[in-house]
Write a structure and sequence with these properties.
CATH superfamily: Class I glutamine amidotransferase (GATase) domain
Helix content: 40-55%
Protein name: glutaminase
Number of domains: 1
Number of helices: 4
Keywords: Glutamine amidotransferase, Hydrolase, Lyase
Distance between the termini: 32 Å
InterPro entries: Class_I_gatase-like, PdxT/SNO, PdxT/SNO_CS
Strand content: 15-25%
Order of helices and strands: EHEHEHH
CATH topology: Rossmann fold
Number of strands: 3
Shape: globular
Largest sheet: 3 strands, parallel
EC number: 3.5.1.2
Pfam family, one: SNO
Length: about 100
């Protein structure tokens, strides 16, 4: 079984996230922690998102990311991904906000 981990690639430093996740996935196999193939892909479209088992959303300017996601047709699919897949969300609270 293969696992696809997507990295939301709408703006900012997503390439660094992709690179680090690829290295980590390779190390997990090399060290025998897992035999599961983990593929990392940059996510820019709803079609790409639909292939994911997990999603990393890099930090950035949330207003800009929401605008880009909306314009690219990704906003509702992202919301559905979290609801339907029952995904876990981890993050750091932005300054001035009590909730994610």
């Amino acid at each position: 079984m293969a696992i696809i981990v997507g990295v939301l690639a709408l703006q900012g430093g997503f390439a660094e996230h992709v690179s680090m996740l690829e290295k980590t996935a390779a190390q997990l196999v090399e060290t025998g922690v897992t035999t599961t193939v983990v593929s990392i892909m940059a996510i820019r479209t709803p079609k790409e998102l639909a292939r994911c088992n997990a999603l990393v959303i890099p930090g950035g300017e949330s207003t800009t990311m929401a605008l880009i996601a909306s314009r690219s047709g990704l906003l509702e699919p992202l919301r559905n991904f979290v609801r339907c897949v029952q995904a876990f969300l981890f993050g750091k609270k932005p300054n001035g906000f009590d909730r994610l």
